[in-house]
Design goal:
By secondary structure, this protein is an alpha/beta fold. The chain contains eight helices and 14 strands.
Length: 256
């Protein structure tokens, strides 16, 4: 499995600032932030699955435009996977005929452009060719999950947006073949209280999390706020030296 970073920023502003999206092989998205918009039409048509960590706009922004763009060019529905709570939010507040058409009923409910699939914590979706995606617990201001991507070459965990979470830590420590951990750190420690209130990580919280990990993956940082990115990374470097975390960047590829 090849996993390509399409977007990993906690904000926008310039060519390199694209919000969260990962492309696994040619057919699977993990979140669908603004980075999806850089794909060519031919690449968009090939996407069969979107796994959504949570319903915040920077992680779902391109789902409505994606299904609108490719719906009539596909033979099967685009499948959006997420927790029951996340899918309820998408149905109620996005695909509601007010913000966007309900593509789960277009052209009709027996032959839709979009289909929703509920995933609960611990559930795994098998994608063929030895590939699988498993929902792991995360902790955010709205219901949220992390995802474990598995293939014959090992596993990758993407945290999505999360605060310090003992259940997530326990789940990660149970993955013996974990090669990569892509974990958010949105704010520097000067904004520690804001990180706690918004249920994000700061460098000191990340350091506590990593200190309690018993596995040894490569650690990559996502969701840095553009105005604070350099400060946040400097603090991570001082506090998390054992893992030497690095910042994700667009078009970085991981192989499993």
């Amino acid at each position: 499995m090849k996993v390509r970073v399409l977007g990993c920023s906690g904000g926008i502003g310039g060519r390199e600032q694209r919000t969260t999206a990962l492309l696994a092989d040619h057919d699977v998205l993990i979140d669908a932030g603004t980075g999806v918009g850089d794909l060519e039409f031919e690449e968009l048509v090939r996407i069969d699955h979107v796994f959504v960590t949570h319903a915040h706009l920077d992680h779902i922004a391109m789902i409505p435009l994606l299904v609108d763009t490719v719906g009539d060019a596909r033979a099967t529905p685009l499948v959006v996977h997420g927790s029951p709570e996340t899918l309820r939010i998408l149905r109620s507040h996005i695909f509601n005929w007010l913000v966007w058409p309900d593509f789960s009923s277009i052209p009709d409910r027996s032959n839709p452009y979009l289909r929703f699939h509920e995933m609960r914590i611990g559930e795994t979706v098998q994608l063929g060719q030895g590939r699988a995606v498993k929902a792991l617990p995360a902790l955010h201001t709205v219901p949220a999950v992390a995802f474990q991507l598995s293939a014959p070459g090992g596993s990758l965990v993407f945290s999505g947006d999360t605060a310090y979470s003992e259940p997530l830590l326990a789940a990660i420590n149970e993955i013996p073949d974990l090669r990569y951990l892509l974990i958010e750190t949105a704010f520097p420690d000067a904004l520690h209280d804001l990180a706690l209130a918004s249920r994000h990580l700061s460098p000191s919280l990340l350091a506590l999390f990593l200190e309690r990990m018993s596995v040894q993956p490569e650690v990559w940082i996502t969701h840095l706020k553009p105005s604070r990115a350099s400060t946040t990374l400097e603090e991570i470097g001082r506090l998390c030296g054992r893992f030497a975390p690095r910042a994700l960047y667009n078009n970085l590829e991981f192989f499993l």
